[in-house]
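Moderator note: this is an archived Q&A kept for reference. The question asked for a predicted structure of one protein chain; the sequence and the answer are reproduced below.
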Amino acid sequence: TRLTVLDRTAQPGIEVDPGARAATAAQLLEAVISQVPPRLPVEVRINVAVPGRDLFGNTAVPRPSKRTTATASAPAHDWGSVSELAVETGPEDSATDAGNAASGPYEPWRPGAFRIPGAAAHPTPLVQSAAMAAVPHPTPSYRPLLPERVLADGLLSDAQLESVVLAGQAHEGHLAATYRIGSGWETVQRCHDDENEDVALTDDGETLSAPVRFRRGWMLGDGTGCGKGRQVAAIILDGWLRGRKRALWLSQSDKLLEDARRDWTALGGREDDVIPLGDFRQGAEIPHPTGILFTTYATLRSPSRQGRPSRLDQIVGWLAGGPDEDDRHAFDGAIVFDEAHAMANAAGGKSARGEVKPSAQGRAGLRLQNALPDARITYVSATGATTVPGLAYAGRFGLWAAGVTPFETRTDFVSAMEAGGVAAMEVVARDLKALGLYQARALAYHGVEVDILVHALSDEQRRIYDSYAGAFKVIHANIEAALEATGIMQGDSTLNKNAK
């Protein structure tokens, strides 16, 4: 066993005999004590914990953070010169359009309805589908507030800055309809013109909120290599510099925490601005006045335990500054659903085996959006929905029950889209882009060469494969006999429906 001692002291190094050995731990300790210089004085600080209660009235003492985190007394971060981004509107030069023209299912991406003067070109060529390229984004009036070095140092490309502008523009608006939200944030009831303002109960007796309008959401559907994380960080930074210094970043895995920190610090932020929710016990108050709370969908769906509020309650309470309806409805910060397709089964559906119940994390994602109706929602996914019902989590688009489409309910929308097939979904994607609510690009394959590599199987490899195939043939022929022999299956009835 080797024991290495590192101490920050001005004293000279310790003379060590490389051939010295200790037969026992006691001898090793004695040698260390005799050789190591005295420790430097240590400043001892005693923090007296005062029993208190969290935002939800429960006694809670937060667990110490695993990392050094910013506090209210920390010095303000210097972002350098900050200004609104300059945006030039108008169609691109026709000669440039002609030079970029391409045939086939994909077309090169280029700035469309607006451009960012001085923005660096994306480091790799991007393409978009021909159908999406045929529809321009609307001309925006929004101008993001960003550090000038982001543009001067090329920290964001022209393609990435376009997304920041589009997201800001989308988040400036609200859906046309007004709604009442159930007490558990599960139900949303659309208000009608002839409705009595005093009505605050559902038919089942559930208490409803005051009428609210949902802020419009935006989706980033770029593929791998486009820098989605950097774009998300820039969207949060725009709001941060405008005073909205509490945000939520949801991801599929806690392993992506360092990726989020990398993208945030690349724009000039501090690493400790990104706060992992796992540093705090469930039900504990989060002691940070500002920051980007990072967590996963699995954590978001954690229910209440042993009298402690759920993780969703904990998150909502920190973002809004309290659980009260007025606080929640006033929160207008950023919420990012990274890999949003993780919520695809938010409302359930049908499969070949019958009805499919909604997933716990899909429901939690919907409840989060309902609890904070004015939050700036950004969905991030290169595969937003593999099925039409999978779009149930994206209610902030206003595709249904918003008074601007013919679909009064989500079920009406799903039925119409499934009847139209893939073509109908393509129309939806194009319409979302035309409304400024969707962005989808991918890396081009310029310069990529493909060779076909053929491996001829040897006689021994064929024999091995045939042996495996023969073994599975025996298994399949005798599976029911095996189930009966083990008592799992008796005649035509299966005691365990999943065993077979």
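Archived answer notes: The chain is about 30% helix and 15% strand.
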